[in-house]
């Protein structure tokens, strides 16, 4: 953590008795720490083992746990990280100084199946000591409490220190600190912290990371803390160290209070210590148990499989990711993926503690299924009040106040809030005015998207188009309920046209995988057979777009845009499984897409711009919903998702995809993001879908429109053709419905959108046909040039054919 260096200064020692009072610990001022600003700052791994927050809005603090220690703590909102890490240091005062993180074997236990209550048990690898820590958040104020038991197992006495590395206000380089009133206080702009112990500190110091004033560097030199600095007044990478008086078996409470200034932070820490760990922890657990009791009954698919604790933790995780200042704003994860490799010197990196409308939709649909529609309603209000832009679009993601983090546009994120509003029956005029803006934006700018759901490439994406179509059909229903029949007709016509065309845009028949017939991940220009190159933005390289496949097309079924038995969907599944599926020890998992570079490097190093994409448990859940839509079982998919969770019952974003190596275990979480709210939401939603026998997310208004129950396929022919006065365009073909190649029986086309001519013809499902366009003027007939055009109807209800007259 810090490179050992040695420096001594002779200063007065702080006594535990003095530190328990609010008076200064010494009448004489102590030295100000040298060495500012210290070494550069980073965050911690995104693979968290546990986390928590109180359900009460008065406690605006969130803690995370990993590697046997405390990781980032967020305050006053879920997008402001303030701590790199906090851990204990043990020394014998003569021969060794050990970091808790690096020199212990670790166990993590969820101590209450109905609360985000975690205990870390760390036993020294040299057998000398054990540290047991139980974590809670004071529901009455912004304080994290850590009840600690320190046991000397052999060879005592030993010395115990707490090493605190604040990174206040989303930055590790702007902190100042001091010893005040027996506590170690720190501040950076509007955020301050106070570290206090129920025993007081025997010694305390503030310094700069990696320099001689760094207490851990000093301690590591000869295993005695000599230099103690009363303040570190120049902004930098602050490190604070306090010695805790211990015997052979000592239990005490550590408090980390936060506030808008040092006085407020100190007062919170002091009040929480005065109230005691037991009282705060009892109230904390009661809050979570009460929340779970307010929800719908646990699904049979969960209780029957012994997964109730996993289900409860998933639901608590979703609630815990909602901010308490901006109701309805849920961040994607309280992590910064591969944070140990991320620069924490500035405040620009949002990590995953940002709000994506797509992720919020996934969370909200799970909460609706679980009986927390109130949370989903808060989220839809947030989306349309804070995130929606004046033109109806939604940003890629934002901080809680609606300001941009990342700056691209993803069209599915414009559509999903509309679908969510419909699912919550938000049909009032006020909501309709906002929905209309987004629906109009979809019509004007879709179906191609600057980025699809994996946030790297643009073009025609099956998953994005599925969301757009669902959004427009839901918008049409809301429009009709508000008397806008013209808008409803426009949205439905656009959705029908895109639904009929999605295969033509994204289903290749000349791909290099399998039999060559499948939906590929993204198409740059809507021609799935032209072999255009796609450059993967995460270090995955350049490839023929036909060679890149993902399972995003399953959204077409889950969102009701295509029936479960759609032949193009079914034809794509074998290529997905042969290319992307891995049978892990925990069950089947899938990659996002082949050649994905978003994951650890080949040697297991953190992702810094290029790597190897790993397996995503949420895709196992999505596949389970597809299986349900086809009338098949999805219990194996639910079990696989649960098995991928860590001992803290947190389901990761990614899991290791091969035999265990480099500290990673096959089928278990990596350093990306654990927990990912989307993963937890997918687990909850799949469980309810299994009980329902079908995906509960599917909007009924969409499914009804594109159900396989339609008697034929409404084929819409559109041709761009210029004509002179008195000339008209017709379509004619080899089927009776198209005139049987007889110009006299050709189907007349309308010119309302001249030079576009349109005609609708109902054709049988699964029919192959040939056709051409003709121009009539009086008794004269002119056929367009070239070979006969060909088409095939699928099992869907609509088909769009868009052509240009061939002279």
TrEMBL record:
- Identify the domain of life: Bacteria
For the protein in the UniProt heading, the enzyme class is: hydrolase
Q: Which PROSITE patterns match?
A: CBM20, GLUCOAMYLASE, TAT
The record's InterPro entries line, in alphabetical order, gives: 6-hairpin_glycosidase_sf, 6hp_glycosidase-like_sf, Carb-bd-like_fold, CBM20, Gal_mutarotase_sf_dom, GH-type_carb-bd, GH15-like, Glucoamylase_active_site
Task: Outline the extent of the CBM20 domain.
Answer: 707-807
Q: What Enzyme Commission number does this protein have? A: 3.2.1.1
GO BP, one example? carbohydrate metabolic process
Gene Ontology molecular function: alpha-amylase activity; glycosyltransferase activity; starch binding
Entry-linked Pfam families: CBM_20 (PF00686), Glucodextran_N (PF09137), Glyco_hydro_15 (PF00723)
Q: Among its keywords, does the record have Signal?
A: yes
Hydrolase is among the record's keywords: yes
Signal peptide bounds: 1-27
Q: Which reaction does it catalyse?
A: Endohydrolysis of (1->4)-alpha-D-glucosidic linkages in polysaccharides containing three or more (1->4)-alpha-linked D-glucose units
> Which keywords label this protein?
Glycosidase, Hydrolase, Signal
Which family, according to the similarity comment?
A: Belongs to the glycosyl hydrolase 13 family.
Concerning NCBIfam families, the annotation shows:
glucan_glucosid
Output this protein's name: alpha-amylase
Q: Which organism is it from?
A: Amycolatopsis decaplanina DSM 44594
């Amino acid at each position: 953590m810090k490179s050992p260096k040695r420096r001594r200064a002779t200063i007065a020692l702080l006594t535990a008795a003095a530190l328990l009072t609010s008076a200064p610990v010494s009448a004489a001022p102590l030295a100000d720490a040298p060495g500012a600003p210290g070494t550069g700052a980073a965050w911690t791994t995104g693979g968290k083992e546990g986390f928590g927050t109180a359900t009460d809005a008065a406690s605006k603090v969130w803690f995370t746990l990993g590697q046997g220690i405390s990781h980032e703590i967020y305050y006053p909102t879920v997008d402001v990280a303030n701590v790199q890490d906090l851990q204990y240091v043990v020394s014998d005062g003569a021969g060794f100084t050990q970091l808790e993180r690096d020199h212990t074997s670790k166990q993590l236990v969820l101590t209450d199946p109905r609360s985000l209550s975690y205990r870390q048990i760390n036993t020294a690898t040299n057998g000398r000591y054990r540290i047991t820590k139980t974590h809670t958040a004071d529901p009455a104020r912004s304080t994290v409490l850590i009840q600690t038991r320190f046991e000397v197992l052999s060879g005592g006495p030993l010395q115990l220190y707490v090493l605190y590395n604040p990174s206040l206000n989303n930055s590790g380089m702007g902190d100042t600190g001091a010893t005040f009133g027996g506590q170690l206080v720190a501040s950076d702009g509007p955020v301050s912290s106070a570290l206090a112990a129920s025993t007081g500190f025997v010694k305390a110091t503030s310094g700069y990371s990696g320099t001689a004033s760094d207490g851990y560097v000093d301690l590591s030199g000869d295993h005695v803390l000599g230099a103690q600095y009363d303040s570190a007044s120049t902004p930098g990478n602050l490190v604070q160290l306090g010695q805790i008086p211990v015997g052979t078996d000592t239990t005490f409470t550590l408090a980390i209070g936060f506030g808008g200034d040092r006085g407020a932070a100190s007062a919170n820490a002091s009040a929480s210590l005065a109230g005691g760990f037991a009282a705060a922890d009892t109230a904390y657990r009661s809050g979570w148990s009460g929340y779970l009791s307010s929800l719908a009954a646990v699904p049979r698919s969960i209780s029957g499989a012994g997964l109730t604790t996993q289900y409860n933790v998933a639901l608590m995780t979703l609630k815990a990711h909602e901010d308490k200042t901006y109701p309805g704003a849920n961040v994607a994860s309280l992590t910064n993926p591969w944070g140990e490799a991320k620069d924490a010197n500035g405040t620009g990196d949002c990590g995953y503690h940002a709000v994506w409308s797509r992720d919020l939709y996934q969370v909200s649909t799970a909460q609706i299924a679980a009986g927390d529609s109130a949370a989903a309603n808060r989220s839809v209000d947030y989306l349309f009040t804070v995130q929606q832009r004046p033109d109806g679009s939604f940003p890629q993601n934002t901080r809680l106040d609606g300001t941009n983090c990342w700056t691209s546009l993803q069209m599915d994120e414009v559509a999903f809030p509309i679908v969510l509003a419909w699912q919550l029956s938000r049909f009032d005029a006020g909501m309709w005015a906002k929905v209309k803006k987004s629906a109009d934006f979809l019509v004007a700018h879709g179906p191609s998207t600057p980025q699809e759901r994996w946030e790297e490439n643009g073009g025609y994406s099956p998953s994005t188009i599925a969301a757009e179509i669902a959004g427009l059909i839901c918008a049409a229903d809301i429009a009709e309920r508000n008397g806008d029949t013209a808008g409803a007709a426009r949205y439905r016509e656009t959705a029908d046209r895109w639904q009929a065309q999605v295969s033509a845009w994204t289903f290749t028949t000349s791909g290099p995988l399998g039999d060559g017939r499948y939906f590929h991940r993204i198409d740059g220009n809507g021609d799935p057979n032209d072999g255009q190159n796609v450059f993967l933005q995460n270090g995955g390289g350049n490839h023929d777009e036909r060679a890149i496949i993902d399972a995003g097309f399953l959204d077409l079924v889950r969102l009701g845009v295509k029936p479960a038995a759609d032949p193009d969907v079914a034809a794509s599944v074998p290529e997905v499984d042969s290319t992307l599926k891995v049978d892990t020890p925990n069950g089947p998992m899938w990659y996002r897409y082949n050649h994905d570079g978003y994951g650890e490097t080949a040697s297991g190093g953190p992702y810094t711009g290029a790597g190897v994409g790993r397996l995503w448990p949420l895709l196992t859940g999505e596949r389970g919903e597809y299986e349900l839509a086809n009338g098949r079982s999805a219990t194996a998919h639910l079990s696989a998702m649960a098995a991928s969770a860590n001992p803290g019952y947190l389901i990761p974003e990614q899991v290791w995809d091969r035999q265990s190596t480099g500290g990673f275990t096959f089928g278990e979480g990596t350093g990306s993001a654990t927990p990912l709210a989307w993963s937890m939401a997918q687990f909850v939603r799949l469980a309810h879908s299994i009980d329902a026998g079908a995906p509960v997310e599917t909007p009924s208004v969409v499914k009804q429109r594109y159900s396989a129950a339609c008697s034929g396929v409404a084929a819409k022919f559109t041709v761009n053709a210029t004509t002179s006065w008195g000339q008209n365009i017709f379509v004619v073909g080899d089927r009776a419905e198209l005139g049987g190649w007889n110009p006299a029986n050709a189907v007349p086309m309308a010119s309302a959108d001249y030079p576009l001519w349109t005609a609708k013809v109902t054709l049988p499902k699964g029919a192959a046909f040939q056709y051409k366009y003709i121009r009539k003027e009086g008794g004269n007939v002119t056929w367009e040039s070239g070979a006969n055009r060909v088409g095939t109807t699928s099992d869907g209800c609509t088909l769009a054919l868009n052509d240009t007259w061939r002279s």
